[in-house]
Backbone:
């Protein structure tokens, strides 16, 4: 290659590189976001909705032996002591008991439980009262 051709190549090559860099710099370098899901029709409502309060978690699940009659009662106490689940058999359907304030008797469907996870007074529908200990 002659000196003139080499000099011309040395001048043209940087110019071509600069043009190539300018064309790449002009591009939008952000990735294209593709989402195959349809827009959520309730997105705006959910965004403006009040926060949801989660239910309390189980604080203690207790099996009580009750007198008179040596009966068993199963109570799941929830945190805050305003909610409990009561079962009268191990595999029975839980009965939801609630109290307006912590420390007050838990009631529901004719059942009442009053006390703590160590001992309770259980009143069954019909008025039968049992004293129970864990």
Residues:
């Amino acid at each position: 290659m002659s000196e003139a051709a080499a000099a011309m190549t040395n001048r043209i090559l940087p110019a071509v590189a600069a043009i190539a860099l300018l064309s790449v710099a002009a591009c939008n370098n952000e990735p294209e976001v593709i989402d195959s899901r349809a827009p959520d029709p309730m997105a705006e409502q959910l965004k403006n909705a009040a926060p949801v309060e989660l239910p309390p978690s189980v604080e203690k699940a207790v099996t009580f032996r009750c007198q008179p009659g040596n009966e068993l009662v199963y109570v799941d106490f929830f945190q805050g002591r305003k909610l409990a689940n009561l079962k009268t058999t191990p595999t029975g359907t839980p009965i939801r008991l609630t109290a307006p304030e912590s420390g007050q008797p838990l009631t529901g469907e004719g059942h009442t439980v009053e006390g703590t996870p160590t001992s309770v007074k259980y009143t069954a529908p019909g008025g039968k009262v049992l004293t129970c200990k864990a």
